[in-house]
Write a structure and sequence with these properties.
Length: 145
């Protein structure tokens, strides 16, 4: 499910970013601010938040999208959650198609409308299966958050 990172999450990620970019003093030099200010930007109790330019500048130095990557994942939703949701929808589409096939032959006669409904259900099933495959293809190796 898509969501917005909390201030606490951003500050925790900023702390990781500062460490990856060389520490408080190095980040202060890179950003053109006092190292005390960098400390405040990563302090959970301080109200100040790092701005986008500061985040991007430090991610370039660290050569890692620590905060922007987390933001993108939060906006897109968790990959495993997306696969699970797509799998449920694919199974529901399959069950719906199977029900229609059973209903079509239940009376021993197939009419054109029944065939059309089965064909539509199988196309829906195919679409859901493709979405499941796409969600699975988006999975990446690495630590699970």
């Amino acid at each position: 499910m898509s969501r917005v990172l909390t201030d606490g999450e951003i500050k925790a990620l900023f702390r990781q970013l500062v460490k990856a970019a060389g520490g408080v003093e190095a980040c202060g030099v890179e950003l053109g601010i006092a190292h005390q200010r960098v400390s405040l930007l990563q302090n959970q109790k301080a109200p100040d938040m790092p701005n986008l330019r500061q985040i991007m500048a430090l991610e370039v130095v660290a050569q890692s999208p620590i905060i922007s990557g987390a933001m993108a994942r939060a906006i897109k939703g968790d990959a495993v959650e997306m696969v699970s949701l797509a799998a449920v929808e694919a199974v529901q589409a399959s069950a719906g198609a199977l029900r229609l096939v059973h209903d079509m032959d239940a009376d021993g006669h197939r009419d054109a409308d029944e065939i059309r409904r089965v064909q539509q259900a199988t196309q829906d099933n195919l679409r859901e299966a493709r979405e499941l495959a796409d969600a699975a293809a988006a999975l990446t190796p690495g630590a699970v958050a």
